[in-house]
Amino acid sequence: MGKIFNMFLYIFISSFALSYAQSCNNYTFSTNQIYATCVSLPVLNSHLHWNYHSNGTVDVAFRHTGSTASQWVAWALNVNGSGMIGAQAIVAVTSPSGAVRVYTSAVNNYGTGLEESSLSFGVPRMIAERVNGDLVVYASLVLPNGRTRFNHVWQVGPVNNGVLSMHSMSPDNRNSVGEVDFITGQMRAGGRSGDVSRQRRRNAHGVLNVVSWGVLMPIGAMSARYLKAFNVANPAWFYIHAATQTSAYIVGVSGWATGLKLGSESSGIKHNAHRNIGIILFALGTLQVFALLLRPKPDHKYRFYWNIYHRSIGYCVIILSIVNMYRGLDILDPEKKWKNAYTGIIISLGVITLLCEALKWFIVLKRKKEEKRTHAGTNGSIGDNGYGQSV
Length: 391
Ligand SMILES: *[C@@H]1O[C@H](CO)[C@@H](O)[C@H](O)[C@H]1NC(C)=O
Ligand SMILES: *[C@@H]1O[C@H](CO)[C@@H](O)[C@H](O)[C@H]1NC(C)=O
Ligand SMILES: *[C@@H]1O[C@H](CO)[C@@H](O)[C@H](O)[C@H]1NC(C)=O
Ligand SMILES: *[C@@H]1O[C@H](CO)[C@@H](O)[C@H](O)[C@H]1NC(C)=O
Fold this sequence. Notes:
single chain; alpha+beta; Immunoglobulin-like; Four Helix Bundle (Hemerythrin (Met), subunit A); 2 domains; 7-stranded antiparallel beta sheet; 47% helix; elongated; binds 2-acetamido-2-deoxy-beta-D-glucopyranose; Cyt_b561/ferric_Rdtase_TM; iron; Cytochrome b561 and DOMON domain-containing protein
């Protein structure tokens, strides 16, 4: 089913690419340069022409039609990621004198002013001109790592008093991303299908992990710590705790697996740290689940040590999980909407924990007092129910 769908998608995209190609391959450049391949990009009146050489270089001409002197134009390869962050851009700006300045800018944040900086690959030649309302950027690129297929992104924005301002957020300006293969000439029409399915997988990864590691596991730990103390559910607290953590673990492992798949498609310091913490978490989480099977009987002399071990690993997992949720949400959603929502959840859990903690101490102290007064402390009070010392 999926295969058939992919095949149709492929045919659809290829015919798109072909029809685009036909409408731009008769353009005559002022230099009379002939390019073997050309593709009209789906948004922002842009066309990409190129010749690929077997030594791994490509000569491109990026053409923005209907361009005005008060606009900047950029075209970029995103070598390791997709979209704006990581884009290795070639930028063209028309100066007041009418000359076109062209330079490179590696984009690493959303607040960029497209300042000049060097790219992660070589650009031995770069010129730009303005012809009949078209802005044309010519550049030769030394493609990195012998690769020929890249995500690319192109953009047009306003220039105010010589300052490059942020592009608008219209659908066209947001959809100006795609994938280009310099050998086959194949384009994803805007790369949308790839980006959409990848974004869907990223979201799934985020939701699964936030629900499991980020929310259920802390709740599972709270159920162990407080239900037991309140004596409301004894020994049911144990089954509630075990069931919560086991389901969190199962959901968490599927979230973790989607993350590994995503991680194999991206790199960078942020991604690597997030992945490494994820792997540590998986190892500790697995240890916790299997430790249950090795749990000594309540009166066993090692039970005390097992309890210490189980709790310290448990708290480590929770702290690391929360840290990694934030790292992941930073990567997933630079606009911080998810992050703010998660912060809300964590604050609520924190407040509930504080209240429970206060109540727990109140109950414990009260019980101790009663025991002292009657000299008849019941042997079945907290901490003596076979599930370990509390507090
Ligand atoms: C290129 O071909 C298209 C149709 O294939 C035509 O509409 C367009 O006018 C041609 N452009 C030039 C510059 O010849
Ligand atoms: C690659 O080949 C092209 C075309 O033959 C040539 O113009 C260019 O200088 C070569 N680049 C390198 C780095 O060898
Ligand atoms: C892309 O990743 C490779 C390998 O990790 C690295 O060498 C290169 O600098 C990265 N490029 C960018 C633009 O981040
Ligand atoms: C608690 O139990 C022990 C034996 O299990 C018994 O000797 C002791 O008297 C009990 N204490 C109270 C306060 O009931």
